[in-house]
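Chain A, query sequence.
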Amino acid sequence: MTDPDPLIEFAAALRAVREAAGDVPSAELAQHAGIDESVLGAALSGGMLPSLGVTMAIVRACGATPEGWEAKWREVAAAHLAAPA
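Chain A, predicted structure.
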């Protein structure tokens, strides 16, 4: 059994924040976060680790408490860098 991919889990956590905010439409959420809709889509898909700034912008735009998100982001970034290619 393989361990869950931290990047996929991180994206799932971001999607959960979005859902808790009322599943805000992508265009509206991207506008409130001050990011491009394609950047939002990439962040929520788990295909790439969004920058810390993008992560925090999404969390804040959803009205969630940003506390703890920087630590989560750093954990995933460290795991992602340590993962074999």
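The mean pLDDT is 92. The two ends are 19 Å apart (CA to CA).
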